[in-house]
Design goal:
3-stranded antiparallel beta sheet; 32% helix; alpha+beta; homodimer; ligase (chains A, B); 2 helices; elongated; 38% strand
Chain lengths: 76, 76
């Protein structure tokens, strides 16, 4: 089974990487880009039957810094 | 409107970041993690009516290195 984890900076936390992308898109001539947020996506290849809660635990312990980042787990 | 872009390393391209995560999960006692791939997710806040092709162009020109990375665009 596969699980996909999205880790994004929480709203209000400054995202310099996203800002850099926004500026670069503007410089390339793309108009109408109002905001960019960049995060991580982690695809996990897990043993069959791993419960979703285990993936949540992985996020809490390693994958996300829950002080500034939020995460979502999706079983695919 | 919002668009979400996923950028992942192509299959066969070495992913040291993903490997590091896999080892760390093992060290934390999580068993059954057979593989980890790490990529980027970019959330774009765009002007209404921006066509999906424009987002594809942004990926080709800036967001993804198409030599080693593949991308997918999702309008949300």
């Amino acid at each position: 089974m596969k699980a996909r984890v999205h880790v994004m900076l929480k709203t209000g936390v400054l995202d310099p990487q996203g800002e850099a992308v926004r500026h670069a898109l503007g410089a390339l001539g793309f108009t109408g880009v109002e905001g960019v947020r960049q995060g991580k996506v982690i695809e996990l290849d897990l043993a069959e039957g791993t419960p979703e809660e285990t993936v949540g635990e992985m996020c809490e312990k390693l994958l996300a810094n829950t002080v500034i980042e939020s995460y979502s787990v999706e079983i695919v």
